[in-house]
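Quick question about two entries, pasted in order.
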Amino acid sequence: MDRTEALARLEPNLVDQFLQAASKSDVLRHTLESLVVDPVTADPVTDYITDLDERCQLFRELQQMNFLRVAAICGAAEAADEDYEEPDDSDEEVP
């Protein structure tokens, strides 16, 4: 496991504490609802943050309880995911 992968791992308890604190903010709660920690591997899993560097940055911010930065990172990743369009492979003509 390299340093980047190590940064992406968190104690599930820390994530739970953050989510409890974030529950006081509707925006953060909605933004972070997709944050899940696999109970077996403790690997972080998210709906739309798939880039490992973004994920590591998110968890560094989680550890520092920096709510505004976490919301900004989640929002930027979500916007990038929404802008992505699947390539159109339908080059075949339909008779």
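Here is the second entry:
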Amino acid sequence: MKTLSNFLCAALLGLLVLTAAPTARAQTYGPPAWGPPVPQGTQFYYIPEIDGYYDLYAQQYIVFQNGQWVALPPSYYDPYAFHPVILDYRGRQPWVFVNAHRDRYPRRVVVVQPRRAMPPGQVRRAYRDGYQQGRYEDNRGHGHDNNNGRGRSRRD
């Protein structure tokens, strides 16, 4: 009986240890939703717009500030304005080659898109409102002639 209780205690203890053991998972690092697809093993994007890097493993930006390379959280920039370049670099410090990256991938010129046209009738309304505000309210509603609306105007 004592042997059976020792065996059950050992089995229960073993079961608790097995369930508490961490499970090993393979970590797959894929590109973010805003980035281009990358081959396996790629760790960094070079982003010419910020003259910095994006670490795919750590999911953070790396930029040069105050004389040193600083890691910034992903919420620090709007990534949809970037044109990331996939780097074929293996290592932990791609900024060692920052001058080569700057020469090869210059900053892109930001193109400001023209405003969209107003819907039909809106231009006329906007002009009319501005015209009335500029002409009539400045003259306190008395018109534009010297007679303040009484009698004949100068042109007649």
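Reply: The two ends are 128 Å apart (CA to CA). The first strand starts at residue 44 and ends at 47. Hope that helps.
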